[in-house]
Write a structure and sequence with these properties.
disordered N terminus, single chain, Ferric Hydroxamate Uptake Protein, Chain A, domain 1, 4-stranded antiparallel sheet, Immunoglobulin-like, alpha+beta, about 575 residues, 24 strands
Length: about 575
């Protein structure tokens, strides 16, 4: 085994040397749209048949080291992909991409259907399928005799923010909407004694008449109240149930009908055949790990195995002989793709799933050096620092993200997620960190979430859907698509994050299902991997965490990713 590792190490050095000799031609280029000739930022430029890729900057420019025989594949959001040869081309490349006509036509059709599929709620158009589940709870303790209206009270509540001032219009948002682009923000729905009212009613409700205030900020708000709860719900109970302001407009019921789930648990493995199944079949006759590794070395010389899925599947296969062997295959992948952000993120996903947190941290540190403009990597590092006992380092990084003090990086799009994780760190490890200059709202000793689910995906261009099914067989589907999430995808690409958080509280008790389905059918050599993290009793000493990683390309049919009891 020692000789094999030495030989493998020498082989890596040799191939790296050959790689440097073969790809010693530096080329530059500009990617733009046709016919406007506008630069395209965040376009992906890949050397065909390799793990080597880069992104264009804000001016559409890129730089790559290539060999004369290389072909480039250029892909961008809402554009047709293009393949070009670099043979004989020395001048800066000018690459124009055409718009994807089918996608544009679908957008046009969707706009025409909006009047049918969306309902006007008084807060903007909301899709009829927007139904989901719950969040934070507040009491009348935030009310004092000096409060003149409920906007004043809202300004004191953690995780709410109020835009505007008392001299003009004011709007209350849940902090989970803070990261949304301005055009997609949805104000909180106000319900007084069971009656939905316009939010401007907060200006005339007497705070002294309030018995209780409950805030629903997550998935339950939408399942319970339909589309009107998309931005969260503020439920106000008064001391006199007849005290709702007169003349307040009562919104029509938007509770969704027809969202009954009847499919049951869908198998995730019985009908799935891995793209690399044939190579695994070749390995199965070998009972000795050395013989299997020798065959693996032969397999990965074949061009068709130059595929991310191959290495991830092989790593899983060899892990049966021990974590060391699975890690060895990931190391082979790392040596070939240590400058590819998507592959580095995939490696970190797999390492965390298998409990190799130190190695996952190292991989993310490499990713920060490679792409210091990716906001999610800082959050990922802070979370892993906390998991590996580096509490002060984690707290320092979280504070930098909270106060936006990392140069040239804006963390606002993921602030709600950062806030929850920072509060969790403080709640569990306050005695081990320096909590000076931390805002008071983060020092709450009663921080907890019943169930927290975080989805992370390696490519913002991936199209997929995740379906949550409650114990009473009602479902909510969150879709990450070009049309339903166009602004989100654009923001993810430009700021460098790809994750979504769901909170379940005060919801149906019983067995929940989480289903997933990929909507992409052509994964290429670098398919998207999805990491699903389930936290139960989040923020409490008995917190439980479970991580699952799957190749979305293998699941173009809906499958059940997880079941859990709430």
């Amino acid at each position: 085994m020692k000789n094999r590792i030495i030989h493998a190490f020498l082989f890596v050095l040799l191939t790296m040397g050959l790689y440097a000799q073969e790809r010693n031609k530096s080329i530059t280029g500009i990617v733009s749209s046709a016919p406007e000739n506008a630069p395209i930022a965040n376009a992906l430029v890949t050397i065909k048949g390799t793990f080597i890729e880069t992104e264009t900057n804000a001016n559409g420019a890129f730089n790559l080291n290539v060999s004369p025989d290389d072909d480039l594949v250029i892909t961008a959001f809402l554009m047709e992909s293009k393949e070009i040869s670099v043979s004989g081309k020395n001048a800066p490349l000018s690459i124009q991409l055409d718009y994807n006509a089918e996608l544009l036509e679908a957008v046009s059709i969707r706009e025409k259907q909006e009047k049918k599929d969306y309902l006007e709620t008084g807060m903007g158009k909301q899709h009829r399928n927007g139904i989901g589940f719950s969040a934070d709870e507040m009491q009348e303790r935030f009310i004092s005799g000096a409060d003149v209206d409920m906007y004043t009270v809202a300004r004191k509540m953690p995780f709410l923010y109020v835009e505007g001032d008392q001299l003009g219009s004011q709007v209350v948002y849940s902090s989970r909407m803070r990261g949304a682009m301005r055009s997609s923000r949805v104000p909180m729905q106000v319900i007084v004694d069971g009656v939905p009212v316009e939010q401007n009613a907060l200006a005339i409700i007497n705070p002294n008449l309030i018995e209780n205030i409950t805030l629903l900020r997550s998935l339950a708000a939408t399942i319970r109240y339909g589309s009107i709860g998309v931005g969260g719900v503020m439920i106000i109970t008064t001391k006199n149930s007849g005290s709702a302001p007169r003349g307040s407009k009562v919104l029509p019921s938007l509770l969704v009908k027809g969202n009954n789930y009847q499919e049951g648990i869908l198998p995730i493995s019985e009908k799935i055949e891995m793209a690399t199944q044939g190579y695994i079949v070749q390995l199965k006759p070998y009972a000795n790990v050395e013989d299997a590794l020798n065959l693996y070395d032969e397999q990965r010389k074949q061009p068709e195995t130059y595929n991310l899925a191959y290495y991830i599947d092989m790593s899983s296969y060899f892990a049966r002989w021990g974590d060391t062997y699975g890690y060895q295959v990931l190391s082979d992948l790392y040596e070939q793709a240590n400058e590819n952000p998507r592959i580095l993120k995939t490696i970190a996903f797999i390492l965390e799933e298998r409990g190799h947190l130190v190695q996952a941290t190292y991989t993310l540190e490499q990713l920060v050096e490679l792409r210091p403009d990716y906001i999610q990597t800082y959050r990922d590092l802070a979370r892993l620092y906390a998991q590996t006992g580096k509490y002060n380092l984690a707290a320092t990084l979280y504070k930098q993200m909270v106060f936006n003090t990392v140069p040239n990086v804006d963390f606002e799009p993921i602030h709600p997620i950062i806030f929850n994780e920072f509060r969790n760190l403080i709640a569990n490890h306050k005695s081990k960190i320096d909590y000076k200059n931390i805002p008071n709202e983060f020092l709450s000793v009663n921080f907890k979430k019943d169930v927290r689910i975080v989805l992370e995906y390696t490519n913002p261009l991936a199209e997929f859907e995740v379906q949550f099914v409650s114990p009473d067989k009602k479902y909510y589907t969150w879709r990450h698509t070009y049309f339903e999430s166009k602004e989100l995808v654009e923001e993810e690409l430009s700021t460098g994050y790809a994750l979504k958080e769901f909170i379940i509280e005060d919801s149906g008790y019983g067995n929940w299902l989480v289903n997933v389905k990929s909507l992409n059918t052509t994964p290429g050599t670098n398919p998207t991997f999805l990491k699903y993290t389930l936290y139960q009793n989040y923020g409490l000493p008995n917190e439980k965490k479970e991580v699952k990683v799957l190749n979305l390309a293998q699941h173009t049919e809906k499958v059940t990713l997880d079941t859990f009891i709430y």
